[in-house]
Amino acid sequence: MARRTQGRNDVSDRDARVLARNSTELTRRGLFGRSLASGLGVSLFGGPIAIAAARPSGGAADGYGPLGPTDANGLQLPAGFSSRIVGVTNQQVGSTGHVWHSRPDGGAAFAADGGGWVYVSNSEEDDGLGGVGVLRFDSDANLIDAYSILTGTSRNCAGGPTPWGTWLSCEENSIGEVWECDPLTPGSQGVVRPWMGKFRHEAAAVDPVHQHVYMTEDRGDGLLYRFIPSAYPDLSAGVLEAAEILDPMGQGAITPGEVRPLAWHAVPDPTVSQGTSTRLQVPDATSFDGGEGVWYESGEISFASKSDNRVWRVNTATNEISILYDLATTTMPELSGVDNLCVTECGDVFVAEDSGNMQIVALTPAGNVKPIMQLNGTADSEITGPCLSPDGQRLYFSSQRNPGVTYEVHGPFLGPRVAVPAMGSFGTALFAAMVAGAGAWTLRDRGATESGQSP
Questions:
Q1: Which of 9, 106, 284, 427 is 20 to 30 Å from 397 at the Cα level?
Q2: How many whole angstroms separate alpha carbon 235 and alpha carbon 195?
Q3: 302 - beta bridge partners?
Q4: Is the pLDDT of residue 231 over 80?
Q5: What pLDDT is attached to residue 59?
Q6: 7 contacts 314 by C-beta, under 8 angstroms
Q7: Is the distance from CB of 181 to CB of 166 less than 8 angstroms?
């Protein structure tokens, strides 16, 4: 995939071996019982390894047609796209016996055995009534199961997928935490990650190259955080940092069109044991006006700030930040109420609206701002949890309220396939390194066990 190598030119053979060792080590420990192949197929390559053709470089959304008439599910979609409802709040999901949760929010899709996949969805209910629900689909997109993977938490807003196949569910309250959940084990309970900070967590995104986790904070004076695990990909310990946008030329606040360097400052007390909120522990950090969705793709972090209607982009290799979209200055003001977002492997940024026109709007690599979905007939709600299935053919999202409804839209979201190998040179080399690493660890464990030593 040509675009996927962009921003990763600094990845050496040694880096590939480090990634291989870390991913294998996670599997070797048995975290959540996940297999190495499952973790690989989720997000490091953007979908299942079995995909037989790469996608074209450059955005695909520019090729979608205009929104058509409202369909039976209340959605306006381009020609060639179709919708179905897969979950409704307080109603049983098909014949599964599982009742779909209220206030569905952030979500992501993960590859499952047999060519199927799952869609995870947070519940933003308060007072210990939040958590995470899952919809499971077989390889033919039949909805075959639904279940919970986290209960007893509060205001699970957004979150993010990890390259090793877990879901980071983020609590949006003053002492909210990150819970790492197993999408493929029904009835499991996530593991809290306190060193990732206690604050109004919104979303999280993992940079697998530099081994950092970026997180947003939903406050008017919220910060952009970066968590550096002590032993990636183990998130049980590490250093939490907050970003400062530097001003080397003395120009004042950053404006559209500028590219600024970032500085990162350690948060002294991430668990707030001394009572001072994380955002107040770093006086030099830059405030972002209502941090929302964040997503990693091809060496870049994209995230939204809702109160100023901006979408930001961080180049993780150069450690620089810029403004991708700004409602106040754009000549294409199609997007307002920016909220959850996801980025496709073609480079399109799908941004869901909180109120606004109840749309999902694509910010394309060509610089266009294009609505790709609009929900009609639902008042006082917001669009949440957009993400593509691992094969890129289905878009999942929810309308959070009145009632909460989770949708699936099927169509050519990534454009036509290109008849070239799926993973590209970097992906092929990395996959081979991971397989080799898995074999090495297996042999090492076996030898240690036979000799009576701990692996």
A1: 427
A2: 8
A3: 295, 313
A4: yes
A5: 85
A6: no
A7: yes
Structural domains for the chain: 2-450 (2.120.10.30)
- The set of residues, in sequence order, having a beta carbon less than 8 Å from that of 298 and lying 6+ positions away, is 3, 4, 5, 6, 7, 8, 345, 347
User: First CA to last CA across the chain, in angstroms?
Assistant: 37
Q: How far apart are CA 33 and CA 188, in angstroms?
A: 11
Q: Are 183 and 134 in contact (CB under 8 A)?
A: yes
Q: Which long-range contacts (CB under 8 A, 24 or more apart) does 91-99 make?
A: 93/135, 93/143, 93/146, 94/143, 94/146, 96/143, 96/144, 96/145, 96/146, 96/147, 98/133, 98/145, 98/146, 98/147, 98/148
Quote the tokens at residue 32. Answer: 């959540």
pTM to 2 decimal places: 0.83
- Under a CB-based contact definition with an 8 Å cutoff, are residues 117 and 396 in contact? no
For residue 298, CA distances in Å to 9, 95, 228, 312, 316 come to 11, 39, 19, 15, 9
Nearest to 302 by CA among 42, 36, 2, 7: 7
Averaged pLDDT of the chain = 85
DSSP secondary structure letter of residue 354: B
